[in-house]
From TrEMBL:
<keyword id="KW-0963">Cytoplasm</keyword>
<dbReference type="Pfam" id="PF00588">
    <property type="entry name" value="SpoU_methylase"/>
</dbReference>
<dbReference type="InterPro" id="IPR001537">
    <property type="entry name" value="SpoU_MeTrfase"/>
</dbReference>
<comment type="subunit">
    <text>Homodimer.</text>
</comment>
<comment type="similarity">
    <text>Belongs to the class IV-like SAM-binding methyltransferase superfamily. RNA methyltransferase TrmH family.</text>
</comment>
<comment type="function">
    <text>Catalyzes the formation of 2'O-methylated cytidine (Cm32) or 2'O-methylated uridine (Um32) at position 32 in tRNA.</text>
</comment>
<protein>
    <recommendedName>
        <fullName>tRNA (cytidine/uridine-2'-O-)-methyltransferase TrmJ</fullName>
        <ecNumber>2.1.1.200</ecNumber>
    </recommendedName>
</protein>
<dbReference type="GO" id="GO:0032259">
    <property type="term" value="P:methylation"/>
</dbReference>
<keyword id="KW-0808">Transferase</keyword>
<dbReference type="InterPro" id="IPR004384">
    <property type="entry name" value="RNA_MeTrfase_TrmJ/LasT"/>
</dbReference>
<keyword id="KW-0819">tRNA processing</keyword>
<dbReference type="InterPro" id="IPR029026">
    <property type="entry name" value="tRNA_m1G_MTases_N"/>
</dbReference>
<keyword id="KW-0949">S-adenosyl-L-methionine</keyword>
<dbReference type="GO" id="GO:0008168">
    <property type="term" value="F:methyltransferase activity"/>
</dbReference>
<keyword id="KW-0489">Methyltransferase</keyword>
<feature type="domain" description="tRNA/rRNA methyltransferase SpoU type">
    <location>
        <begin position="5"/>
        <end position="156"/>
    </location>
</feature>
<dbReference type="InterPro" id="IPR029028">
    <property type="entry name" value="Alpha/beta_knot_MTases"/>
</dbReference>
């Protein structure tokens, strides 16, 4: 299933071909086949290359064939895409559930995902060739997806079924302020609050302990302590009439 084939049938717009290539590449898929597109040279069309945005290699390896039968050569399991279930034909599935079931088989099949024309979708004949119909769960009052959007959603669901990719998380390089630094900040801030008349030292009303708890929850960094002490310093300058 890593080598799943994405097949676009009678595609009209070059931009959708490029956007499809991009959607495939970000999810780690590379096998793109076009069946009788509107323009025979669509893979080298300027708009297709522009919309591929870094996935030009997918376009370079893609193939254009004349019939769906040619496009399905070597495929074991075919999934058609349709917005609504058909009265006759293969069963309709939610994509993620079906992909997970296929990936769990002892020997996962070589998969093909079929996408119809932007103008009229998939023909009944093409749907009848398929083992399953995929219906992306959408709002019941409006389920129309752009071609490349549909490709992106299915490519994502398929990648998740295959284990997904790890998130490239970046851990910020921060130095947490120690308890002594926080206490120094509190003392400085207390003096500044008294200077501007916000804190009455004769009736503090637990203001400073509450700020202490706030700073503890925030887990201040050393840089943040410096910033807050700088603010306290400016408060004191203003209250004394000194130039900032």
């Amino acid at each position: 299933m890593e080598s799943t084939r994405f097949i676009l049938i009678n595609t009209s717009h070059a931009g959708n071909v490029g956007a499809t290539a991009r959607a495939m590449k970000v999810m780690g898929f590379a096998d793109l086949v076009l069946v009788a597109p509107r323009f025979a040279d669509v893979l080298c069309h300027e708009e297709a290359i522009a919309m591929a945005s870094g996935a030009a290699d997918i376009l370079a390896r893609a193939r254009v064939v004349g019939t769906l039968a040619e496009a399905l050569d070597g495929v074991d399991f075919v999934c058609a895409t349709a917005m609504t279930p058909r009265d006759f034909g293969p069963p309709t599935h939610e994509p993620r559930a079906l992909f997970s079931a296929l990936a769990a088989r002892p020997q996962a099949p070589r998969l093909a995902l079929l996408f119809g024309s932007e103008r009229y979708g998939m023909s009944n004949e093409d749907v009848y060739r398929s083992h399953a119909v995929l219906s992306i769960p959408t709002h019941p009052e409006y389920g129309s997806l752009n071609l490349s959007q549909a490709v992106q959603l299915l490519a994502y669901d398929l990648r998740q079924a295959l284990g997904g990719f790890g998130v490239q998380a970046r851990t910020p390089d921060v130095t947490r302020a120690d308890a002594q630094a926080v206490q120094g900040l509190l003392e400085h801030l207390q003096a500044a609050l008294v200077d501007i008349g916000f804190l009455d030292p004769q009736a503090p009303r637990k203001l400073m302990p509450r700020l202490n708890q706030l700073f503890n929850r925030a887990e201040l960094t050393q840089e943040e302590v410096h910033i807050l002490r700088g603010i306290a310093r400016q408060m004191q300058k203003r209250s004394s009439g000194a130039e900032p």
